[in-house]
Amino acid sequence: MDLHVTHAWYLVLGALLFTLGAVGVVVRRNPLVMLMCVELMLNAVNLTFVTFSRMLGDVGGQTIVFFVLVVAAAEVVVGLGITVALLRRLPGATADDVSYLRG
Amino acid sequence: MGLLATTEAAAHAGDVPLLPLLVLTPVVGALLLLLVPGRRTELIRLVAFLTSVLAAVASVYVLAEFDAADSGMQLVSHRTWVADFGISWFLGIDGISLFLVVLTGLLFPLTIIGISPGHDDKAYYFWLLVLEAGCLGVFLAMDLFLFFVFFEIALVPMYMLIGGWGHGNRSYAATKFFLYTMAGSALMLVGILTLVLLSADATGGPTFDVLRLGEAQALAPMTARWVFCSFMLALAIKVPVFPLHTWLPDAHTEAPTAGSIILAGVMLKMGTYGFLRFGLYLFPEAAVWAAPAMLTLGVVGIIWGAVVATMQRDLKRLVAYSSVAHLGFIVLGTFALNTEGLQGGILQMVNHGISTGALFLLVGLIYERRHTREISELGGLQSAAPMLAAVFVLVVFSSIGLPGLNGFVGEFLTLLGAFISHRWWGVVAASGVILAALYLLWAFQRVFHGRAEGDNATMPDLTWKEGVVLAPFVLAIIGLGLYPRPVLERIEPSVERLLVHMDAQVDDWERPVIEPIQIVVDDAEDDLGDGGDHDAGADEHAEAGR
Amino acid sequence: MEELIWLIPALPLAGALLLVVAGRRLGEPVAGLVATGATLGSFALALGMFANLVSLDEHERILTQRLFTWVPAGSFSVDMGFLLDPLAMTMVLFVTGVGALIHIYSIGYMHGDPRFHQFFLYLNLFVASMLLLVLGDNMLLTFLGWEGVGACSYLLISFWFEEEANASAGKKAFVTNRIGDWGFMVAMFFTFTTFGTLQYAEVLTGASSLAETTATAIALLLFVGAVGKSAQIPLFIWLPDAMAGPTPVSALIHAATMVTAGVFLMVRTSPILVEAADWVPTTIATVGALTALVAATIAVAQNDIKKVLAYSTVSQLGYMFLAVGTGAYVAAIFHMVTHAFFKALLFLGSGSVIHGMGDEQDMRRMGGLRRFMPVTAVTFIIGWLAIAGVPPLAGFWSKDEILLGAWEESPVLWAMGLLTALLTAFYMSRQVFLTFFGEPRWSLEGDGDAAVDPAAGMPGDELPEPKPAGFHPHESPWSMTMPLVVLAFLAVVAGGLNLPFSKDLHFLESWLEPSLFGNGHHSTAEGSEKVALAVVAIAAGLAGIAGAAVLYLKRRGRPATVEAAVLRRGWYIDSSVTWFMGGPGRAAFDAVAWFDRTVIDGAVNGVGAAVRLVGTGVRPMQSGYVRTYALTLGLGALAVLVLVLSRVAI
């Protein structure tokens, strides 16, 4: 079986990862897991960018990945910080327990 | 700070960049304040005072350096900021802004020593100094972007001052002040961008430089009118012009005394100053087009403000409404679009700053002693505090526009200017002087005359320190009333230049000037024959001048 | 001499400044002496100027001095400059002269007042302003003095501010005056736009080139200003109230000097008035005559010794405007001068009476005072005869000239003037008889229950409390009586300024000639006609005196028939104005304030409320559940995607 790994495979993987992340954000309640799901989505996008970059022979896509990585890092620093602080104050809290911003 | 460094480094050899120094002194002072521990109240006050005195000295030095004969921008400081968008650090001063800058420079130290905040001194003085930088920046900026930045910067400290150190309903007043002004300036930002982008072709790439935009006059007439309106709305709210004035009494009443003084003395002038600098200069045709409407609003403001002031029960509200009336005179003078009116308008800006600033200071002193501003709870204060009453009556007379005191000259010139260009507006507006006497003297009577009872009878008189703070006001009131010439002389060339610019830009408009009748000396031996013809000609002339 | 003109107003101004700085330390009586000295200095200087002026040729009698440019703005420029011509000289002389006398009098009158120095500070400031008014070489400087005297008048009327009534009177005076000032200001605008200058020298010489409509407008507006300052109908209501001030103030400001500023202004600008439409002078004359008559009828029924004189002043000012309106400018100035003498005398005399009576002002509590206060009584009687028009005292000559001018203009005006003369003689006689003659009425007669109030039954409002038994009025100190004697002397001889008998005796007329630009009124009446008119005037005066004598001295007839309530209340003019201001006027103001608060500010707050309402409507969308947000976000992105793709596909 000639299992040639084409570009499409990467794209499908990216889509799968993204869906996984998106569904995770929507269904899970643990803030830590939700954050991880967001990371998953970001990296799914990164994968897609790299793939297209290679497909089109344009280095722009790979450049953008670096931006995304930086943003993701920043997001993790801030988001994780908030989440840890939150969990320390309310151990075992779910995202729904902190709906302080309800209008 | 980097900006300061580059500016200074790049300044002409041996030439002190006076204007940037003036603007940045309060900023440096404010930053220094942050380093002082909050407990050291005395030190904080000292730093704030010294900074403001430094700025005052700088502003007086600017006055000394100012060349009275030069009508253009002086002491210019020009550095590129964001080159791609044509934004630059462009400060300059001319006769129109000179005395507003000096007024700002002198008013702040007096405010700082005259009134203490009572709590949170550090934050209070910090905001006050930031406010000073913003106010000075507004009057000095000759780049629209820079102007807008300063215009908005000045808003925040005032919001904080009202919200943090104000009276009773302060958060309502602060929010109203902030949102109202903000709504206007948002529209102005759109106007600025429209102007800059549409002028980009004519000015060779986008520029925010006021002078170049004014010279270019690249907008189509209808567009110019729309953009003019966006400027006017923002500035008219700031002035405030009737019927956009209702934030003023609330802000003034709830603001701490220092806030009221600066608000009335300096910040309201940002609007009227903007009328001249941007309204008339950038959009001459639209200004001519809008003049009758603005004059009408000015007249209505004069009468309306006075009438409403008469019925106020709160002393500060009364003074606030009197500001509406006084600024009506300034609007009137500005849109008279002649030298007399414009000069009077600018002088009136300075005068109003002095008189109303002093009035708010005095009301603040009464409030410190009696903890009330309700007119009905005061009475007979003159027997307890004769000195306070004496200064108060002088300031009241100045505010009424008594000849010999500062208020009169400006008021008279604005009315005269209005009369020259639009006769009936001048006639109606002049009746404002009757109402001014009515509400101010009635208030004075209710507060100071009659028999003192209760706490009113034991109210302490002015202290030595308060006397020192009030003395410059008193001197300015009398000095500007009897010898306004040095001020008027410095204003005139720039005003003249502005009008020449307008005259050149607007085709079907001549600036209103008077044409005196030919005086015929009808001595019997003097040309008997055509004496009658002469007379008739003179009559026609007089009719035409009307 | 010219370079010293500025010293005339500067001396009292310096006095005022000195009193500002050191008044409290100087105290009584030094503060008063300083002020008096300053005014006397001005007077001496004025005398020197006068001598200098007289020595000049008639057509060169104009001294000018320019100090500095006061207000330069565009084409507008006004100097701080002085113009000393015969008209200004006349004013300066009697302002400083009478002013100095009243200063001296005040030292005695204000004795013991805790604000003694402040009083003299204001008084000096007043004299300085008044001198600026008359000396200014342009309308704006005159206006400076004009408002300055108004401000001093305000400060002095409400000098005893502890009484609400005094404070209100001061405010009323200032605000009412401001109505007139509006006219003055607009007149200046007109003048400037027409002539391009406010300088008298140019305006007055150029007046002959004026278009009639312009001249009419300027003259009428100036008259509005004069009506306010000189208390003519309909703005006269402030003057009677102004009597709330200390009596020397009433004498100086509200009788002799400030209130005549309106007349001065009209005479100063007479070349413009001459160019105006004919109905303008007629209006001025009518207003003057009407004011004279109405005020005289009111004076008949007043019980307050100062109120009588106040209405009398209004009435006499009416005479002066009658003269201005009939073109008899010299007569107006003549009467102004004589009136300054005898009315200041009467006011100071009444002050002396009030002083001696222990602050009693109601004439029903006086009577027989001539035995207690001989000097005051004699001088007062001289003042009475002067104002009543008894020859050869001053008032007769000046009044006669005015009536002559009125006669040549219109018999109706003359008749009104004559009736006023009769009434003047009547009410002044009434005052003298009630005050100085008859029996004392200040304390009860008899003891215990049998005590009778001698003043009971006299018409008027509630009687003041009688004085305790054993009260004795006393004559005033010399500082108060000396000015009375001097003024009495002047009231007798001032008629000599302008005697009608021969051209050579028209001193004032030929003196003022250059200031009037040949617009002076020259009588065309025959000698016999003049004599007849004078005889009629004398008869009217004597009839008035006789009538009062019958009613108040012989006590035949009932005074109440004359002193009707409608007259005592001043034809209800003042109370109507007060009612209107307090009623509909105030309601209108309140309505505006209400509109401002509810509608204009309401609209602003309404915008805020609307934003808040929309916010409340959409806030449930913010559930606080992050997962919901994420889902919404995803769905939204999907929707956008679908939209874009569908567009692209098509």
Tell me what you see in this structure:
- By secondary structure, chain A is mainly α.
- In chain A, 75% of the residues lie in helices and 0% in strands.
- Chain A is built from three helices and no strands.
- Chain A has helices at 7-27, 31-56, 60-89.
- The longest helix of chain A is centred in the C-terminal third of the chain and has 30 residues, at 60-89.
- Chain A starts with 6 loop residues before the first helix and ends in a 14-residue tail after the last helix.
- The model of chain A has no long low-confidence stretch (mean pLDDT 88).
- Chain B is mostly helical and 546 residues long.
- In chain B, 73% of the residues lie in helices and 3% in strands.
- Chain B contains 23 helices and two strands.
- Chain B has helices at residues 2-10, 18-35, 41-65, 95-114, 121-140, 144-153, 155-165, 170-203, 210-216, 221-238, 247-254, 257-282, 284-310, 315-334, 339-370, 381-384, 386-400, 406-421, 423-430, 432-448, 464-482, 485-505, 531-544, and strands at 74-82, 87-93.
- In chain B, a hairpin with a 4-residue loop joins β1 (74-82) and β2.
- In chain B, α4 (95-114) packs antiparallel against α5 (121-140).
- The N and C termini of chain B lie far apart (57 Å).
- Chain C has 650 residues and is mainly α.
- Chain C has helices at residues 7-26, 30-55, 86-109, 116-135, 139-157, 164-195, 200-206, 212-229, 238-241, 247-256, 261-268, 270-275, 279-299, 305-325, 329-356, 374-388, 394-409, 411-436, 478-493, 507-516, 527-553, 559-562, 565-568, 573-618, 626-649; strands at residues 63-73, 76-84.
- The longest helix of chain C has 46 residues, at 573-618.
- The N and C termini of chain C lie far apart (102 Å).
- Chains in contact: A-C, B-C.
- At the B-C interface, α8, α13, α15, α18 and α19 of B face β1, α5, α6, α7 and α8 of C.
Cα distance spanning the termini of chain C:
102 Å
Tell me what portion of residues of chain C adopts beta-strand conformation: under 5%
The whole-number mean of residue pLDDT values of chain C reads 89
Strand order of the largest sheet of chain C: 1-2
Q: Helix share of residues of chain C?
A: 55-70%
